[in-house]
Sequence to fold (165 residues):
Amino acid sequence: MTESNVAHFKATLVPQFSPQYSNPDSNVLSPYVSGHFFFTEKSVIEKVPFVDKIAFTEEEPMMALRFFTAGYNLVTPKKAFVYHRYGRPDRKLIWDDSPETFYPKHNESKSYFQQIIVGQKIDDTSGLFTERTLEDFENYSGIHFSTGIIDDRVIKGLPSGYYPS
Fold:
C-alpha cells in the first residue's frame, strides 16, 4: 500500500490497494476481492449477493467482508491469467462521463459502507454474516476498521500469518 492508500483508509475506513504481484509458487489465500477478475459458483453469489447500495471503491472491500463473514475463503491464483490496465491516458472513467451522478452515488456508497463497518451490521442482504466476525477479518487481513490502523505487513505486501478456519 502507498502512503496515500493508508491516509485514505484512516480518513474513510475504505481500504484501497496498489497492485503487487509476487509470482507465488502456489495459489494464495487472500482477504481481498478484485472486482475486475472474480470468478465463483452461482450458489455463492446467491448466498452472498452484491449490495446495491455499494458502488465503485467500496464494492471490493464490502464483498471481501461479506464473503469472509459468510465463511468463504478467497484465493488468488498463482498464475495471472488476465490483467486490467486501469490507468490509460486515452480512457475516460465513469466520474469523467457522469460526475453529476457519480459523486453523489459514491458519497452515499461510502457512507453506507462506513455504517456497516462501524455498526458491524449483520444482515444477509446488505451487511455482514455470522460465520466469522469483523474482528476475525481484521486479524486475518491486517486491516483494522475498529482502530483505523493497517498492519505494517499489509503496507509492505507481506502475507498474513493468520489463516481462517
Q: What stands out?
A: The helical segments are 3-12, 42-47, 59-69, 94-97, 99-119, 134-141, 152-155.
